[in-house]
Amino acid sequence: MKALKKSLAVLLGADPQKPIPDDFTIEAHAMHAVQRADKGRIQLLLAELEEKKTKGKPPEKWRRRRWSVLILVNLLFVLSYSLDIQVLEGALTASRFVGFHMADLNSALQVMLAYKQVLINLLIGTVTVLIFWWVLGGRTFCSWVCPYHLLAEWAEMIHEYLEKKKIVRDHPFDRRVRTLLWLVFALLAFVTGYTVFETISPTGILSRALIYGPGIALVWVLFLLLVEIFYSRRAWCRYACPIGLTYGVVGAFSPLKVTYYLDACFHEGECRKVCEVPHVLDMVIKGRATDVNMNIGADCTHCGRCVDACPTGSLNLKFKGLGDIFQ
To answer: What's the DSSP call for residue 15?
Structure first.
């Protein structure tokens, strides 16, 4: 329960807290002592980093899998509409899959607040999606389904290239802004009777543009991408998007987690370099892990990039009770 509270606090914008001595398990204390005493680990770490320079970047198999799923899901929306095959009707905000109603959790909440009533079809769709994303880990929606996430990753690649050339630099924001915006949009929906967030949500804008054709709202999406390329890396997903916050709360209780194994870790930090939300990997910093096996927090998108980047296999996707079934 303590770990859950910390995970939710970080999700809402709190900075990860350094653990106190009482937080560590006996096993973690022992493992940290072993790693501090093992001088050979430093040589192994240096050899590992040198090998990485020689071989270059490791293959990102999880990114390829994720992009394939994301493109296929959104393509299914497009084909269902254009060919009128009624498999996946609607858009990401609200849809129907072979007859089953599905509603994006954040969009459904906005509608219920705006209309101040619970619509039965909306409730059915919300429960269906809630169960689905609880099983698959909440913010998995962000990295495996959301079309804006894919564009933001491409924008991030450009940003990183420009940053290496010293043309731009990253400007982080306070992560608590996302929680504040979630509350602001919820209040606006309740007071105005209008789903204000849906008019500016790049997820909804892109989903509708792909299915029904482009509109002027794409200018807003382009603006967000330019901000992320030239000013703040992954700004929308990290600091603003209420959808990510909503699904993060669901993911806090999910059986699917990225799990960290202290005994295999060299603490070289390769995972944090590629992570969209590096604050969730605070435990991989030397001396921070309070247990020998730890689940990554609720803000994790399960993108798998840290799994691919870790050269020692100390991170993996895991279903509770089923073990490391995703290699």
So the answer is: P
